[in-house]
Amino acid sequence: MKIESNPIYIHPCAGFVLLLLAFLLTGCGEDKETPKFENSDMIARVNGETLDRKALTKEVSRNKKKYRVEEEGESLSKEKLIWLRMDALNQMIQEKILLQEAKKQGVELEPDALEIEYHNIRQGYEKEAFQKILDFQENTEKEWKEKLKRRLLIKKLIQETVNSRVSVQEEELKRYFDEHQDEFQKGEQLRALHIMVENEDSARDILKLLRKGKKFEDLAREHSLGLESESGGDMGYFEAGQMPEEFDEIFDLKVNKVSDIIHTPYGYHVFKVVDKKPERKMSFEESKDAIHKKLLREAQETAFQAWLLNLKNQAKIEINYDALETIH
């Protein structure tokens, strides 16, 4: 994999908690002298910019929900509380460093980028569902939108500074394919036609019409509520496990046979199997895109971690440990 930058030392510590401890307590750019803070509301400084108690307290509260570490009626152990504080503080420091780097490099969002992303996300939720997410995260809509803006800025920074410099060569794809043959196996596939109706009586009427010689495709166009009804119910090829488990039984059907009625929460279904493809090994050409995505993602993650560590090592990070211990 080609990374268009000089090699950067990658932190050898594998354990997540140990990595947090190493970062917060023993280095990664932290000031070696005892830092002075004007008051206990200042939890840390990152290159001169402060992180306050209110923000960290809120992040620790969110972490308790996110990691489900607090049992009802029980207090947190000292170890869990330390871990929650450090995880929250590490994330806040990391975000601050990345936003500072974005500002330094002049990275800015396109004028409508935030509103477009915000609109796209909101469209995926009913109003009440979105409000529940805000409540769970202890966010107002304004705070959530501001957090989204920060995420988009950081995403753009990483894309321009790290991901765009990483590439995977053709010979690496071929080598991975040759060394991982067991990953590129296609299971048995079948092609089926599908009719979905609201109730069992309608499904039985469909079976009667099929026995009288009516074409499955015509009945699908006339009666099916499925998305593929306009194409005669054609679902294309799929493997077992790619559809709801209730449909697995149709793999036992022979070609041109019709299934019994299958009931799911969505309705009542009838299938006709029109073709089958046996299990086989995939060719390199079939596998290449998936391999490329996998190796590129791994290469980008390695490059990102190295780049981020370098930023942390260059940053001046001061932590108010006395104030940190009072966060609950």
Give your account of this protein's structure.
With 328 residues, the chain is an alpha+beta fold. The chain folds into 2 domains: 2-167 and 291-324, Porin chaperone SurA, peptide-binding domain (Triger factor/SurA peptide-binding fold, Orthogonal Bundle), CATH 1.10.4030.10; 186-281, Chitinase A, domain 3 (Roll). 49% of the residues lie in helices and 15% in strands. The protein contains 11 helices and 11 strands. Helix 2 crosses helix 3 (78-104) and helix 7 (170-179) crosses helix 10. The longest helix is centred in the last third of the chain and has 31 residues, at 284-314. 17% of the residues are buried.
List keywords for this structure.
about 325 residues, alpha+beta, Triger factor/SurA peptide-binding fold, Chitinase A, domain 3, 2 domains, three-stranded antiparallel β-sheet, 11 helices, disordered N terminus
Topology:
Blueprint: E1 2-3, H1 16-26, E2 42-46, E3 49-52, H2 53-67, H3 78-104, H4 113-123, H5 127-136, H6 141-161, E4 166-167, H7 170-179, E5 185-186, E6 189-197, H8 200-211, H9 216-223, E7 234-239, E8 262-264, E9 267-277, E10 280-281, H10 284-314, E11 317-319, H11 321-324
Antiparallel strand pairs: 1-4, 2-3, 2-11, 5-10, 6-7, 6-9, 8-9
